[in-house]
Amino acid sequence: MASTDKQTEQRILDAAHAVFLRRGTAGARMQEIADEAGANKALLHYYFRSKEKLAEAVFQRAARNLFPPLVRVLGSDASIEEKVRGIVDLYLETMSASPFLPGYVLSELNHHPERITRLMESLTGTPNGLSPRLFERLAAQIDERVRAGTMRPITAPEFVVNLLSLCLFPFAARPLFSAAFGWDQGGFDGFIEERRTNLVAFFMSSLKV
Amino acid sequence: MASTDKQTEQRILDAAHAVFLRRGTAGARMQEIADEAGANKALLHYYFRSKEKLAEAVFQRAARNLFPPLVRVLGSDASIEEKVRGIVDLYLETMSASPFLPGYVLSELNHHPERITRLMESLTGTPNGLSPRLFERLAAQIDERVRAGTMRPITAPEFVVNLLSLCLFPFAARPLFSAAFGWDQGGFDGFIEERRTNLVAFFMSSLKV
DNA sequence: TTACTATTTGACCAGATGGTTTAGTCATAC
DNA sequence: GTATGACTAAACCATCTGGTCAAATAGTAA
Question: Does residue A58 have a pLDDT over 70?
Answer without folding.
Answer: yes
